[in-house]
Amino acid sequence: MYADIILPINLPQLLTYGVPHELHELLRPGMRVEVALGSNKVYAGIVERLHNEKPEAYLVKPIKSIIDEEPVVNGKQLQFWQWIQHYYMAAPGEVMQAALPAHLKLMGETRLEWSGEEDVVYEWSDEAQIAVNALQLRKELTISELRGMVPVRHFAAVLNELLEKEAIKINESLEVMYKPRKEKVVVLTEQYKEEKALIKLFNELSRAPKQLELLMAHTELSVKLGIVRQQDLLTRVNATPAQVKALADKGIFNIEEVNVDRLIYAGVKEIKEVVFTPAQQVAYDKLDEGLSEKNVALLHGVTGSGKTLLYIHKIRECIAAGKQAVFLLPEIGLTTQLVRRLHAYFGEILGVYHSHFSNNERVEIWESVRKGRYKVVVGPRSALWLPYSDIGLIIADEEHDSSYKQKEPAPRFHARDAAIYLASLFDAKVILGSATPSVESLFNVQHGKYAYIPLKERYMGVNMPSIEVINAKSLETVRQLGIKLITPELQKAMLEALQQRKQIILFQNKRGYAPFQLCTVCGWVPQCKNCSVSLTYHKSTDKMHCHYCGLKAAVTHTCPQCGSQNLVSKSFGTERVEEEVQKIFPDTRVARMDVDSMRGKHSMGELLDQLEKRKVDILVGTQMVVKGLDFASVALVGILNADGLLSYPDFRVNERAFQLMEQVSGRAGRVDGAGKVLIQAYNVQHPVLQWVKDHDVNAFYQQEIKYREYFSYPPYSRIIKIIFRHADETKTIAAANLMAESLKTFENIIVQGPGPAIVPRVRNQYIHEIWIKCPRDNKLLNELKTFLKKQKPVILAGRGNANIQVIFDVDPV
Fold first, then answer.
1. More confident call, 111 vs 528
2. In the chain, is it the N or the C terminus that has fewer CB atoms within a 10 Å radius of its CB?
3. In terms of pLDDT, which residue wins out, 157 or 440?
4. pLDDT tier for residue 723 given thresholds of 50, 70 and 90
5. What is the per-residue burial (b if ≥16 Cβ within 10 Å, else e) of 308-342?
6. For strand 15-18 and strand 2-6, is the pairing parallel, antiparallel, or unpaired?
């Protein structure tokens, strides 16, 4: 018997290993196995397939051992991985790396075992002596421990010295990363579990009041909770561990260590009921009808229409049918507020999965899904990787959002499209929800692929916010007062909202204080030394930051090119907005929501909590404030720089700008309908601004789809972007030219490029791109992918090309 194994490394294909006879009955696809690769590398791989086909090209090594008693990955997951790998042109190991929680991927750790002879006197260098002392004491060190003891420049020399004198043996072994959380519980010993013996014990302890108090507290807690944690018992009676141990020494208590769940949610006392408005009921009936005819339904509900209630009711139907439901959101930040709402409807059967959980917590969620404890899972795109056994429904809320597309590292998959494939494996239904659906989804509706359910009325008939476009030239009238970002019209509206004790959201899609500085004499701009981008000034750190490679540099006060001191800040980010707002309204409470201010695990939850409790008057933020925030008191939304959204070099620029502005507008007046949105722009005649003013998705779509068809952009074509990266620009260009030349043999495709990327250098790597437009023909698309996969190793085999990165991005966004 042979097994095709997925290893967690970037190899273009699976490796086949022999299955020893004693493992034939035990081994199943989806189990982790220990295998060797090369001379001494050990990996934990996943068995994808068992078969009897012996490879001809190489000598087969045997599997060393089986790690699991049952598969950690099920058959449907393996099918899903194969599709992701094929469609998005990823290596099997890249898919495995993305899908499995870190602590389920056992890693080989090289260990150095002391094997020096007792009666031999060695002469060691000063650097090696430290390592020798540690090895003689502990008998074993890992490579990483040795690195920590020896200066970096002497590491190789010390290792060679130990090996030459045969004082160490090298041993490779797999290390289990996941460790269950242990907790001490206090259990009454067998002899006191009978009522008579317990009463007698109470009488005996009457002269030891503290011990009696501990016993009484234990009895009470065991009735209430079932299990008595030592910590709960100590807190209950303000006792010490020594006092509990005294009762254990008397044979009254046993103190045991047990594995406990890291994820403990507050219990829900009462599960809420779903009550629809008449408009929601009509939409729900249409949704039912649509899903009976089609597998995918697009729920087009305006912002604040109550789409979530429809989702909740469909999830309940799914659970009642004994199936699992997946609720996808584009970003982690959105889960915080939504989970609070969903928890009131689903209680303990609701699971949450995202990257802010620790590695150990993620393993526990994985296991809870595998064992069927969680019936509903909420999370961003990574939630698709969990080991579901029977999905009935997948919901992709805010389906238009570009965050559903994984950009780095591979697999560069789109969670919305992947969800539709995953649902097809289980014959499940998919609901795509959005107030501003993507052009692709509206196109699929138009061509009868998806059912369409409109929900054009806000919850309880609340009015949509009124939208006004302000000419940013009016800023000239307040510049002399030192105000540069907020027009008089927006200031006036903010003052009115604050007087009515309402909250305000200000949206600016750049973080930091000043996106770039400029010398007014010669035009010099501070650039990152590793990337072809200007540095952004952050006032909080008083440093210039690169948002691509993380470089931080000191602020320049003198131009190095001409010696002038006339350096001025250009454009503005959220930090600058926050400062100006505080200057105009000094008595208000201003908060900021961007990548810099939301770095902590609980930062988002804490800020949302403050907003809900009205401890924040004005929230300044980037795209984070756009997505799904629902606060009753937000009366005004200000979009500070619409021109920046409308001038990005991308064929989706109008779609993105429309979606962003419409979504951020939807945060206003969600309860009373008295919402107001003010958009500051210099180009006030731009058609997108008119569509946003009218909340007119249809007019936007009709205009956009003509332009897409004319220029053969998606949805009329499929795009594959090929990215070339290398530290040497000449090699990057040569490799890209070779690929472009080879593509000339293909008919019916459009090849654009090669040319430099929008940011042509990142982390000292030059980036060139080729864009291929392929007609919507699956046969041609598959032929093209096969050709590209074969062409990549041909290019890398060229002299000096081995280190060039060639990356395929299917359906880039």
1. 528
2. N
3. 440
4. very high
5. bbbbbbbbbebbeeebbbbbbbbbbbbbbbbbeeb
6. antiparallel
- Cα separation, 324 vs 312, in Å, equals 13
CB 167 within 8 A of CB 134: no
Strand partners for 328: 379, 396
Of the candidates 172, 47, 176, the one whose C-alpha atom is nearest the C-alpha of residue 106 is 176
> Which residues make Cβ contacts (< 8 Å) with residue 47, sequence separation at least 6?
3, 4, 5, 27, 28, 29, 30, 31, 32, 33
User: Phi and psi of 724, rounded to 5°?
Assistant: -115, 130
Distance (Å) of CA 629 to CA 44, 611, 612: 42, 10, 10
Distances (CA, A) of 484 to 509, 604, 644, 700: 17, 29, 16, 32
Per-residue 3-state assignment (H helix, E strand, C coil) for 397-415: ECCCCHHHECCCCCCCCEH
Q: Rounded to whole angstroms, how far apart are CA atoms 283 and 697?
A: 18
Q: Which helix (H) or strand (E) holds 574?
A: helix 574-584
How many alpha carbons lie under 13 Å from residue 95 in its C-beta half-sphere?
29
Q: Which residues contact 498 (CB under 8 A, 6 or more apart)?
A: 504, 585, 588, 617
What pTM does this model have?
0.82
DSSP labels, 94-146: HHHHHHS-GGGS-EEEEEEEE---TT------HHHHHHHHHHHHHSEEEHHHH
CA distance 555 to 513: 12
C-alpha span between 327 and 395 (Å, rounded) = 5
Euclidean distance between CA atoms 254 and 244, whole angstroms: 10
Q: Are 293 and 429 in contact (CB under 8 A)?
A: no
Q: How far apart are CA 91 and CA 89, in angstroms?
A: 7
Q: How many CB atoms are closer than 10 A to CB 299?
A: 28
Burial class (CB in 10 A: 0-12, 13-18, 19+), 145: middle
DSSP tag of 551? -
Question: What is the tens place of the pLDDT at every residue in 790-808?
Answer: 999 999 998 888 899 999 9
Question: Residue 19 has which token pair?
Answer: 């299955």
Distances from the Cα of 742 to the Cα of 87, 136, 717, angstroms: 21, 60, 21
| Structure confidence by residue, pLDDT tens digits, 550-583 | 899 998 889 999 999 888 888 888 998 999 999 9
Q: What is the pLDDT of residue 482?
A: 67
**By three-state DSSP, how is residue 265 classified?**
coil
Residue listed under structure tokens 């429809």? 310
- The span from the CA of 34 to the CA of 42, in Å, is 7
Whole-number Å distance between alpha carbons of 471 and 681: 5
Does residue 201 have a pLDDT over 80? yes
Please report, as a single letter, which amino acid is at residue 511.
R
Cα-based torsion angle of the residue sequence 116, 121, 127, 131 in order, rounded to the nearest 10 degrees: 30
Least confident window among 99-108, 363-372, 589-598, 711-720: 99-108
By DSSP bridging, strand 32-37 and strand 65-66 are antiparallel
| φ and ψ of 580, to 5 deg | -65, -40
* Token couple for 811: 């359906």
Closest CA to 771 of 728, 715, 713: 713
Query: For residues 5 and 9, what is the distance between their CA atoms, to the nearest angstrom?
Result: 11
Alpha carbon distance 123, 116 (integer Å) = 12
Q: What are residue 120's DSSP bridge partners?
A: none
Give the pLDDT confidence of 222-252 residue by residue, as tens digits. 877 677 888 888 888 888 888 888 888 888 8
* Rounded-to-integer distance, Cα 153 and Cα 526, Å: 34
Residue 269 has pLDDT above 50, yes or no: no
The maximal CA–CA distance of the chain, rounded, in angstroms, is 96
φ and ψ of 593, to 5 deg: -125, 100
Output the CA–CA distances (angstroms, integers) from residue 536 to 513, 530, 545, 620, in the order listed: 7, 14, 5, 18
